[in-house]
Amino acid sequence: MLENKKIVLGITGGIAAYKAAELTRALIRAGAQVRVIMTNSAMEFITPLTMQTLSQGPVYTDMFAPTDQYDMAHIALADFVDVFVIAPATGNVIGKIASGIADDLLTTTVMAQNKPALICPAMNDKMLANPIVQNNIFKLKKMGYMVMDSGVGELACKTSGSGRLPEISKILQAVEFLLAPKDFSGERVLVTAGPTEEPLDPVRFITNRSSGKMGYAIARAAHQRGAKVTLISGPTKIPPPEADQIIYVRTALEMYRAVMEHYEKATVIIKAAAVADYRPKTEAREKIKKDRGIPGIELTRNPDIIAAISAKKRKGILVGFAMETQDLLANARQKLLKKNMDMIVANSLREKGAGFETDTNIITIIDRNGKTIALEKMTKIDAAHKILDHVKMLSKKKGLCVKP
Ligand code: CTP
After folding, report:
1. Of 179, 197, 223, which residue sits at a domain end?
2. Is any atom of ligand 1 closer than 6 Å to the C-beta of 273?
3. Number of helices and strands (H, E) in the chain?
4. 403 assigned to some structural domain
5. Which residues have C-beta within 8 Å of that of residue 329, sequence separation ≥ 6?
6. Is residue 47 part of a domain?
7. pLDDT digits (tens, 9 = 90+) for 180-235
């Protein structure tokens, strides 16, 4: 999503300026091109040399400095940019932009550009709570700027409260949101993710291996593209994605009930969850003790959720997943037909860079029309967007409502 995207990063003078270095590294790592503008106050906290080294490009500090690349930096940077990010944004710069003041290179460039802009406030909690600052943030939001909520926690001024620079990962996700086409607006996407746990007794359970990362990436990508997203998630250890509704469940039966309650409203259903096919027939009320000998575990089948949906009259696109250790494509095609899906995403557990816990995946998309697309290794968020691209294509074929 960030590959080759052009980001202008404005840094202003707050203690969180040092985190702009980390943000720059993360943007570069994600494949973005970064140009940095620093205010005079920012240079009191972090040096242009640091930012130049990390951004692998020139750093702009002076409105009137001649450069060898651009004769009018504020215009050239405004033309260059896909997304403008100010991190950290002090109360001062927020006030200046909200009031139309352009008295340095950063504020002049902001005034000269008309691309999506992301403001990441970071300041003392009392400054942030000041009604003047709040009113300026409100004004910026009304004018179409995306202003992130500050993080809550320990602040540099030895207090604690709201005012920390948002987490770098959250800033990256906000940039992705601004870059994403809103071609799923009006769609309702239901995603299931993560494993289910089938309890044996109060301390033990049977589960499937799954981190939930792929399903969460799909929920995030759909949200970025303007869909209304309902995520039904089994137990995971990862932070939740942005979604309109998140329903946490534990067992396959709970997931089944939640899906049955919500699937009818969905125009796209993506079943990325690793549902346990079996559960212990009985759940012991007390912990099973060793001195009673080795227990035999009698299992019973869980409902097949995706098969249950496709057996009902449903609208929209149904997408399943197949994770296999052998005969990947043959098994996936068989599941696609057997469970009457529109499309299945196959991934092999045998390939390096695919599967559990990783941030990358290697997927093959197979659809009902016989089309098979094998994709190379990519991040899970990029794979999620590829899946949504194919959903969009199938919807258009089916005459459904995903926008062109
Ligand atoms: N699935 C489901 N309910 C189940 C089991 C699986 O909805 N009880 C869904 C999964 O979310 C996935 C698809 O069915 O989208 C395929 O799941 P998978 O576990 O690969 O296949 P199974 O049909 O369970 O077959 P097998 O375990 O024999 O490979």
Report:
1. 179
2. yes
3. 14, 22
4. no
5. 346, 364, 366, 372
6. yes
7. 999 999 999 999 999 999 999 999 999 999 999 999 999 999 999 999 999 999 99
For residue 401, what pLDDT is reported? 47
CATH number at residue 131: 3.40.50.1950
Q: Mark whether 198 and 274 lie in a shared domain.
A: yes
Ligand 1: residue whose CA is nearest its atom 23: 335
Q: Give one DSSP letter per residue of 19-65, joined into a string.
A: HHHHHHHHHHHTT-EEEEEE-TTHHHHS-HHHHHHHHTS-EE--TT-
Write b or e for each residue in 95-132: b if 16 or more Cβ atoms lie within 10 A of its Cβ, otherwise e. bbbbeeebebbbbbbbebbeebbbbbbbbbbebbeeee
pLDDT in tens, 306-321: 999 998 866 789 999 9
pLDDT digits (tens, 9 = 90+) for 54-86: 999 999 998 877 666 545 677 788 888 999 999
Average pLDDT of the chain is 92
Same domain, 148 and 31: yes
Task: Specify whether 157 is catalytic.
Answer: yes
What is the C-alpha separation between 343 and 56, in angstroms, rounded?
Answer: 41
Q: What is the helix (H) or strand (E) element at residue 73, kind and residue range?
A: helix 73-80
| Options 28, 127, 157, 401, the catalytic residue | 157
Residue ranges making up the domain that contains 87: 6-179
How many whole angstroms separate alpha carbon 93 and alpha carbon 273? 44
Q: What percent of the chain has pLDDT over 70?
A: 96
- 349 C-alpha to ligand 1 centroid (Å): 15
The closest alpha carbon to 253, from 331, 199, 318, belongs to: 199
Q: Tell me the residue ranges of DSSP E strands in 78-116.
A: 83-89
Instruction: Say whether pLDDT at 403 is over 80.
Output: no
Residue 341 lies in a domain: yes
Inside any domain, residue 402: no
Looking at ligand 1, which atom is closest to the CA of residue 208? 19
Q: How many folded domains does the chain comprise?
A: 2
Name the nearest CA neighbour of 218 among 194, 198, 185.
194
335 touches ligand 1 (CB under 6 Å): yes
| Mutual angle of helices 48-55 and 19-29, in 10-degree steps | 10
Q: Which helix (H) or strand (E) holds 217?
A: helix 213-224
The first and second tokens of residue 308, run together, are 């249950």
